[in-house]
Structure formats: C-alpha cells, structure tokens
Amino acid sequence: QVHLVESGGGLVQPGGSLRLSCAASGSIFSIASMGWYRQAPAKQRELVASITRGGTAIYVDSVKGRFTISRDNVKNTVALQMNSLKSSDTAVYYCNARTSRPMDYWGQGTQVTVSS
Q1: Is the pLDDT of residue 28 over 90?
Q2: What confidence tens digit (pLDDT) does each residue in 37-89 have?
Q3: What is the pLDDT of residue 66?
C-alpha cells in the first residue's frame, strides 16, 4: 500500500503561479513513477505530468513550458510548479503513484481555481 498526501492548490489569478506537493508513505520502494492528473467538471481525468524514479518527465502538450514536475527520491515527494496559469487549468489535481506491478495509488485531490 502507498499513501499519498497532497498540499498546495487554491485560487489564483490568470498568469499567476501555484505549487502542488505530494508526499508518499508506505510501500515506497515499489513506486516506479509519480505524477499529477487533473479532472475538470464534466471532463475525464487526464495526465498532466509524470516523472520516473530516474527523473524522466513527460507533460501533456497544454502545460509544456509552463509546468515543471520534480521528484525527491530521498524525501519521497513529488511537486508540480505551475506558472502562467490559465482558466483552462482549473480542475481538481490528483497525485498519482504507479508501482511496477503496475498498480495506481491516488491522493485525495486538491482544487486549483484560476479566475480573476
């Protein structure tokens, strides 16, 4: 079992920045990749960014150049730095941990609202 606790999120104006953090505990040795997904109202959950234990990161096209994912394998944390936020980034953001089995674990979700 992997337990994920998220922090960050909130309300920000367009063009602003936010930082999301996620701490993993439990069977952390089994985690292969960690990432962030988001789900906007009436839309499917989508991958925003993910990063492997070795540091290889991927991003959805809509956030490239604006978001940066980072991972600390010692502290077992993953962070998402979000810059130049747009109203279209408004969603509930979920931390994800995927094991090599593979099995997915999820955080409780944190709301990000971009609005003036």
Answers
A1: no
A2: 999 999 999 999 999 999 999 999 999 999 999 999 899 999 999 999 999 99
A3: 98
Residue 106 pLDDT? 97
pLDDT at 30: 85
In this structure, what token pair is assigned to residue 47?
Answer: 């991958």
Measured CA to CA, the distance from residue 70 to residue 92 in angstroms comes to 19
102-110's contacts with Cβ under 8 Å and 24+ in sequence apart are: 102/32, 105/1, 105/2, 105/3, 105/4, 106/4, 107/4, 107/5, 107/6, 107/22, 108/4, 108/5, 108/6, 109/6, 109/39, 110/6, 110/7, 110/8, 110/9, 110/20
Give the pair of three-digit tokens for residue 38.
């988001």
Contact residues for 54 (Cβ-Cβ < 8 A; gap 6+): none
